[in-house]
Amino acid sequence: MNKLVVDSNVALDLLVFDDAAVQPLKTVLAQGSALWIATAAMRAELERVLDYPKLAPRVAFHGLDRDAVLARFDALAQIHPEAPRAPLRCQDPDDQIFINLAVAHGATLLSKDRHVLRLARRLLPWGVVVTQRLQGAVASGQQRMEMPPTARSANL
Asked: Do residues 6 and 28 lie in contact, with contact meaning Cβ atoms separated by under 8 Å?
């Protein structure tokens, strides 16, 4: 089963904003063809972000509150123990937990953060593909995940 690590921005797109760009992610999670793995620290970060003064009104606009979003997170993400520090360091210390978990599990890392995206090529030897979104979903009755062309190209 494909393991995914989802950063806070992509999680917000999925759990709050229902952004069309996360529809393939929503599909693979619903079908069980991918597993969203997270840590307690990632959940705590999402909880902290939900209380940002600029974000809270947008969450409310979508008919949600912090507890509802966290309940969605809890229903979709499988909590794992904190991962050991990865050999690569991210310039943004808040993003390091996502990199650590992705490296520990050889997971795909979904992120829109520029600091994480800059590490994409360097994370490949550890089995981590970094991409901003999943693309594709079900082909010929078989479930499979595909990375957008940019995730496979030299742009990373």
From this structure: no
Can you tell me the distance from the alpha carbon of 72 to that of 115, in angstroms, rounded to the nearest whole number?
Answer: 27
In the block, tokens 């690590």 appear at: 5
Residue 13 CB neighbours (<10 A): 20
> In the numeric block, which tokens belong to residue 74?
């809890």
Q: Are 16 and 69 in contact (CB under 8 A)?
A: yes
* Residue 121 to residue 45: CA distance in whole angstroms: 26
Domains of the chain (ranges; CATH) run: 2-152 (3.40.50.1010)
In sequence order, which residues have a C-beta less than 8 Å from that of residue 39 and are 6 or more positions away? 79, 80, 81, 82, 83, 97, 101
Question: How far apart (Å, rounded) are the C-alpha atoms in residues 26 and 24?
Answer: 5
- How crowded is residue 81: how many other Cβ atoms within 10 Å of its Cβ? 9
- For 68-126, how does the pLDDT look when each residue is reduced to its tens digit (9 = 90+)? 999 999 999 999 999 999 988 888 888 999 999 999 999 999 999 999 999 999 999 99
What does each C-alpha distance from 108 to 3, 61, 63, 65, 93 come to in angstroms?
A: 6, 31, 30, 28, 19
Q: Which of 33-37, 78-82, 85-89, 133-137 has the lowest mean pLDDT?
A: 133-137
